[in-house]
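Customer ticket, subject: "Can you confirm the structure for Amino acid/polyamine/organocation transporter, APC superfamily?"

Message body: Hello, I'm evaluating your service for our small team and ran a test protein. I'd like someone to confirm that this is what the system normally returns, since I don't have a reference to compare against.
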Amino acid sequence: MGSEQDRTSHYQEGSLTLPGTVMLGTGVMIGAGIFALTGQMAQMTGVLFPLAFLAAAVIVAFSAYSYIKISNAWPSAGGIGMYLHKAYGNHLPTAFNALLMYFSMVIAQSFLARTFGSYTMQLFGGDESGRMVPILGVSLILGAFLINLLGNQMIQGVASFIGILKIGGILVFGLVGVWIADSISVDFSAPGEAGTVGNFLGGTALGILAFKGFTTITNSGSEVKDPHRNVGRAIVISIAACVVIYTLVGFAVASNLSLAEIIETRDYSLAAAARPALGEYGVWFTVAIAMMATAGGILASIFAVSRMLAMLTEMKLVPHSHFGMPGTIQKHTLVYTVVLGLVLTAFFDLSRIAALGIVFYLVMDIAIHWGVLRYLRADVKASAWVPATAIILDMLALGGFVWVKLNTDPFVIGVAVTAMVVIAIAEQVFLTRFARTGESGHESTQVHHHH
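Agent reply: Thanks for trying us out. I re-ran your input and got the following:
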């Protein structure tokens, strides 16, 4: 590692194997998605929620194309930040969208942390006071922070171990749940008011949140062995695995709980679905997997997020203050990330955290595809129709989601818009100032590219 005092970030090229990379991706995807989103999606789309998962998978498949193309061309540990930089240079769109991605990843951590709290409290008969869920969430983030300070091998080891247990456990849950259910026929007859197109698109947008873990794979680009082949493969395998698992779990939940029950227990619907099927042992089993899944997801996510912010800092795209802290930039960005996650976890509930995450993520995703379409198509040898389709699908999902939220919880859309305006203005000021001081941030950004 050399002296710890220098302010650069250290990456280990070729330290992640293909199975390790897939575990990292599915680990983040399954951690966030399945435990809390199943109920949230059912609330929005009614009985069509297993189909919303499939619709989300289709959108994500189109999305993944741009990421695979760029990461094949330039594998990088900074992932998204670097992709945006390739498309938009040292300008506002790069910094703005990279920060949206950063915040959406921090939001995902808070989402995982709250989910961890909601499930854990099921062992103690729920959280009447509403105080324990944020407290547990905050403790989990702090624990993950400490493990992250211990370094790379530790994270991969812990994440892989948890990943295997979790995916095995969720498969058992899905298979047993479907097996025990009185009848596999899910009642699609009464969509109710939720049957509208807007609600289905909104639910699909939430579903995208369950798959967005594949971007973790692109963020660990240069650390993957033989990245030009394996990053794309890992993404495809992860998405495919998640489609199978989500569909299975969706049917297990839908065939063991009525729609009203799913909505009522939306923060911990898998534990609730295990109760009629498997009794208290089922609940314990499900809660144990949920705790491992969310904990593993947070570990992997804090790792990727702090890494990305470190890269943006090195590219001189975001202001950075050491606040008097010793050590490398990546250690500092780790601290920022954790503090931000703690604040969100303490003060926002699950559906609002998810809403912020999805708005930020989709806006950023559209910018990536536009960058490929408009600036990078020749460089990465991409065909035009795939990113174009991805943009249209993203806009549909985002439009549907915003529409639903404007009707049910306009506050959260207000927060999202305000946050984006603040980020844009702050970044514009920072970039203008930085340009004035006459430093060109260009030399330092070239370091990570493969020579």
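A couple of notes from the result: The chain has one domain: 20-448. Confidence is low (pLDDT under 50) at residues 1-10, 439-451. Feel free to reply with more questions.
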